[in-house]
Design brief:
The protein has 373 residues and is an alpha/beta fold. It has 2 domains: 134 residues, Response regulator (Rossmann fold), CATH 3.40.50.2300; 226 residues, P-loop containing nucleotide triphosphate hydrolases (Rossmann fold, 3-Layer(aba) Sandwich). It contains 14 helices and 13 strands. The strands form 2 sheets. An 8-stranded mixed sheet has the order 8-9-7-10-6-11-12-13, with helices on both faces. It has a 5-stranded parallel sheet with strand order 2-1-3-4-5, with helices on one face. The longest helix is centred in the middle third of the chain and has 36 residues. The two termini are 39 Å apart.
Amino acid sequence: MNIITALKNPNINKKIKEKTNFNIIGNDIQYQEGIIEMLEKNGEIDLIIISELLPGEYSFRDLINKIKQINNKIDIIPILKEKNEEINNYLISKGIFNIFFNNELTIEELIKIINEKNNIKKEIEINEEIKKLKKIILEKNNKKIISVIGSGGVGKSSFCTIFAKLIKNKKILIIDFDILNSSINSIFGTKKYPKKFKENNERIGLDKLIIKVDKNINILCATKFLVDENYKKTKEEFSNELNNLKDKYDLIIIDNSSECFFEYTKEILKKSDLILFLVEPNLIELKKSKNLLNIYINKWKIKKEKINIIFNKININSIDNKILKTLFSDFNILGKIKININYNLIINKSFKFINKKIKNDYLKIINNCNLDE
């Protein structure tokens, strides 16, 4: 605790220094203007012990007001020359409650009060640190990697884009990891790689390939750097880079390949906090979906509770909703998305205009994802 005294009594300043371990700054201040000078030079003062008898150009009330203007958080112990109800009430209105009068306060009592204020200060500081720590932990826990999977042509890339566009107040990275049908950059109307990137045999970090496409959305086309022998990364390298990216973004959405024997996909699914499995509700696609789920769960040992089902491209000829729920009763079903003639318009306009009905379907799914938990 940093303390200054302004009592026109050097002896009290000296005794406080002798009997405590507090940081008593300088000598006792002998005039009002000296307080102002000290506070303007040092913004780290925690407590001032001040006498009403201190000479200067200000009234005591104006002096207190001036001190609070310079440092509103500073604690003040005033010592008045005599009882004065008006000044007393004014001090209380400023949050000053330890008010004393001349010849009423001993050094021992003063040190006891300082100790109490120091303990309160420490407690406040500890509580502030706890709040900051809780905030950091909460922010860390709220960072998520979401994998979007499903058979080829089920609409993963379109889903990733609309899903990301409708999430507010989060910094999002979409990683295009669809080896067979890489199209995220085409949807956003950008090149695959930044202008600065030049193809050579140099090893390069994934973070160098990020392209900003929206105020809160970046994209990363990662396919070349995971399959091209000149750039290919080991699973460990990719895992480390994914961890680093997770620290920089609130949400990472990965558009995965439907190729179920691709080793990187297994690594991604294991690192994902949430897996969204898109299913098109017709007999052929249901069979493909069941086969993929069998591989993910039984061969790759992906935890079933991480996998969430979304029925995509629902139309009047789709398999009945009750049957779908029965077929996927072992999984959490997040929702369904109806097919809509406006999808082509949305894609062709780089997802700048999203139909209200489509938006509603997605917002229900986003809400069910509980992204802030």
